[in-house]
Amino acid sequence: IRKRLLEYDDVLNKQREVVYTQRRHALMGERIGIDFMNMAYSVASTLSQQLLATGEFEEFQMQVFRHFGIESPIAEKDFKKYKVEDMTDVLYNAGMDSFNRHNDRLCEIVVPRLREIWENVKSQGGSIRNIIVPLTDGKRIYQISCNLQETVESNGKCIMKNYMKSVMLNILDDAWRVNLRDLDDLKQNTQNAHYEQKDPLLIYKLESYHIFERMVAKMNAKTTSALMRAQLYIPEPSPQQAAQAQAAAQQQAAQQAPAPQAPVAPQEFKEAAPEEKRQDFSKMQAIHAGMNGENQVQRKPLASTPHVGRNDPCPCGSGLKYKNCHGKGL
Asked: What is the pTM for the complete model shown?
């Protein structure tokens, strides 16, 4: 029994070594750029293989935008002329160029403000060392902690490195937890293979490989998509701040309003024709009511009065019971 359990655990242990090696690289951050490039190339290769087999260019455009956040670098007329290797290289190069331009643009926005904060800290002798930069991929917000001096001196490269570490660790941990649950369910289900005269361990090895392969592909796709869409997170203003901003905008618009123009001369209007008199049907209704014998008495709504019991206090406020006061003799 122990030998059999070890054989099952060996399958899980091989997957664990691969996942924890990649997680260690993300924590240390030494080769995080190489891991990301490998992920992007793997995603480009998978897309090329799947979409060239189907031959649908519209689906190709949608998947490229979904994973890399760019328009298709290949024209529709040349789509079927590419081989898998050539299309993979084109997608990978276009995606990495977009990633580098996007990161440079993000650093141009964030670094000047951080440099200003760092100058104020040095001039005032403050003790601020780390700062939080909120980044988002459109779905999730990441609070990136960076050393202020290192970020300014590296021109923002520290921000993107820490962002890549946070994204990779979050996606990797979520994917690994799901994979462990799937393998546990698979182990329980393969025990029924005895009834079919099959080896449960062999089935477990084959199916666990496919599960792990799908996990890695999904993890690479999510990581690539999140890193390609990195942008600075700007929270929406509260209702009070929005009202203050609107009031300030209205005041500024009032100050910049043009001077009132001279009154325009009134235009000439034609005299309107007299309104036609409408026929009065009130007398006809009265005659009709008299012919039918109806009484033209104005009806008033009935006012409901609250019910007072015989033993209840009298409403007049005398303090006596109603039967001994105004209700006497009723």
From this structure: 0.66
